[in-house]
Amino acid sequence: MATLIKEWSKLEVRAVVRFLFSKRTKPSEIHKQIAETFGEGAMSRSRVYQWCTWFGEGRTSLGDEPKSGRPKTSTNEENTTRVDELIRCDRRMKIREIPKSTVHEIVHDTLGYWKVDKARLHQSMTWKHPSSPVTKKFKVQRSAAKVMATVFWDAKGVILLDILPQGQCISTARYCSTLDRLKEAIRRKRPGLLRRGVVLQHDNATPHSANLTQQWLQRYGWEILPYLPTVQTWHPLTFICLDP
Fold it and tell me: Region entry Disordered: which residue ranges (predicted)?
């Protein structure tokens, strides 16, 4: 990666453009190398293409062509230095707050300031300069994803805690598989309960009321205690196994 040159002149940048153009380098690649070497504000993409066109037409001069009309009097060194000092003292200064003296030309063309952060493509709140330090970007880290757990208990305590893999949710097939594990947990932790019969209460969520789930419950003869959503003492996700 090229070392960033912080101090440069327009003639130096144009000389590099001419050199690379003579090597048959594409304008897009020239702009990329200019940005990497001198900074984003050294020369815009359109300006690189313009200079490549001029060099292709036989131009050899790197200086600015004299313009017709009134001579420049406001973009002298004194005014340029004054505008530069104003901006460096207050990077949030609006351009209309600077005394008018072809300010736009001094700020943008002579000093090379801009208010568009080209790396982020949105309007910046402060003036940028080719020698301004690169803004550090904070890496956004994803927060920990939620996991879902199913808990079954009775008056004696928790019988089964079933935690789903991260990013998964309870489906009918998964719930029936959980009921299989619950049946085995009851056999180990509550001897005799399966023989006497299990009374289960769960809400009317789709995995609980699906045909596959109902067939499982009927196959093993488990009784379903009606769910009363108006009873505020029971949480909607409560699973209770009762010993009849």
Answer: 62-81
